[in-house]
Amino acid sequence: MAIPLSDHDIEALLYICTYGLTRRSSNQQGTKIDSWMLSSLGFNHCIVSLDLRNILIRVSMGIFNDDDLFHLRIFNAICCCHYQFSVGYGRPVAIDSSYADLHKLILQFPTATVGDAIKVAELELYELLAKESGQDSAGDDSYYESSTSSPILSFSSLTEWRSSWEKIISKDITQGLNLSYYFSHIMKGRRIIQEKGHQDDPTLPLAYNTACQYSFEIINRLLELPESSVRGTPSFHLSQIVYACATLFDFLDTMKPTERKMSLNLISKVYWHLNKSGEQINVATDTIARLIRKLVELASNHQPMEYKQTVGFVGTGSITEQYIRKRHIKRRDSQQQRRLSVEDLPGLAKGGRVPIKESPEPFSTTPSSDVEFQLPDVSNFENFEDFFYDIFKPEQAGL
Length: 399
Known about the structure:
Elements: H1 7-19, H2 35-49, H3 52-60, H4 66-89, H5 114-132, E1 143-145, E2 153-155, H6 156-164, H7 166-170, H8 176-196, H9 203-224, H10 227-231, H11 235-250, H12 257-277, H13 283-300, H14 321-332, H15 384-391
Antiparallel strand pairs: 1-2
C-alpha cells in the first residue's frame, strides 16, 4: 500500500481475484490465490487511488464522465468479489460499510448498462448474506414452507431481493445472478441442518429438500450454458457448482435409491460437461472437474468426504490471456453494451414471488442402501449417454 496503484493495476488485481489468474509454466502447478485477501487489498487501493469522494460530488452535481464510470465499475466488482469470498470462506468482511452507498451510484450514469445493474444486484445479495452470517439460521430473516407442490423453505429476504431485481435477473445471460440466488438457498438450508440436526425438528426435512432442490437448479443451469460461457466462468461460480455437487454427495445417505442414482447421474454430468468444456483452454474447469470426480469416487467407495481434500481445488486455476480478451469483447458486445432502462431497476420492479423450477420429486430423510459406482475416463467415450451407460451397467439397474 506504500505506492498507490493506477486504475489499470487495480483492474489487474480484479481479474486475478475473479478468475484465479496466475503465471505458470508447463512444469509448474501455479501459485494459489487467496481471493478474499487479494480483494480486500484491492478495496484499499480503490479508496486510495480512485478518488471516490469526488466522484460522489460530481454525480450529485450532474457531472458524468467515462473515467468515473470506469472507476465505479472496478470498485463495485472488487467489492462484490470480496463479499463473495467472505461468504464462501466464512471470513469477516474487510469493507467499511460506510462505502456501501457508493455501489448504486453507477446506476445514475446515463451510459450505465445492464451489466452495471447486474453487478449492483449481485453486490446487494452478497452484502445481505454477509450481514446474516453472524446470526443464527433465522436471525432477522423469516423462513416458511413454500406453497409449491414440493415442500421447501422460502426466505423472506431472498424472495424480496429476487422480486426487486426480477427484470435484471432475466437479462443476465451469464446466469450469475440465478446461480447466486440458488447458492444462497443451499447455504441457508445447510445452515439450518447444521444447527438443528441433533433435534427432532419438523423444519429439517424441508431444509434437506431446499438444499437438494437448489443444488439441482445450479447443476441444471450449468448444463444449459454453452461451452464458451462455461470456459469464462469466474472461479467463485465454479466453486458454487462444486458446492452443489458436494451437497448432493453429503445427503446421498438420506435419499431413496432412485434419488441417489439421479444425484450421481447429475454429478457425473457436471464432470463430463466441465471436462469437455475446459479442454486445453481453462485449467480452472479441469480442476473443478477433478474435484467432482473425487466426490464420485468417494461415493463409490462409501467414504465420508473430508473438506480438507478440496482446498487444493476450489478457487485455483488459470486461464489464457487470449481467452480473456475474447470473452471481454464478447461481454462488451452483449449486456455490458446494452443501455440500462430505469424501468428495470428495483424501485419500479413489480412485486410477487418468482417460482423456481421444481426438481422431479422431494427427498426422503431416511438412510438407504449403498450403491456401487465407478467413474470411467471421459476420453474413452464419444457422448455422455455411452459414458453414463458404462457407469450404471444393466446389473446395477435396480439401484
